[in-house]
Amino acid sequence: MAEERINAEQVQHVAGLAKLEFTPEQLATFTPQLEKIIGMFEELSAVDTTGVAVTSRMSDHTNSLREDVAVKSDEKLRQALLDNAPETANGLIKVPAIIDESGDGE
Fold first, then answer.
1. Which long-range contacts link 53-57 to residues 24+ away (Cβ below 8 Å)?
2. What is the H or E stretch that residue 56 is in?
3. For residues 95 and 2, what is the distance between their CA atoms, to the nearest angstrom?
4. What is the pLDDT of residue 1?
5. Domain ranges, ordered by start, for the chain
């Protein structure tokens, strides 16, 4: 193998930043995979792209979006929606919290 670009300690550090935990077996699997990925990016960086136009999209098609306008819904439809929701509170659909603000990292 050529010069080492990344080692297990670096992978473990990045995993910690992402709040991931790897077993030693997973670390032994992911480290060489990340090494290959970095090598691919280095290979791409070596390609001469002088004179090549920037490509931001693969086609000239643009998204056709409707105007975002609030409309008053029919009360029967609203109630049917609430009746089918797993849990409601104060006339709204209750959903689980997705942002943990406890600060404990769990």
1. none
2. none
3. 51
4. 45
5. 8-45
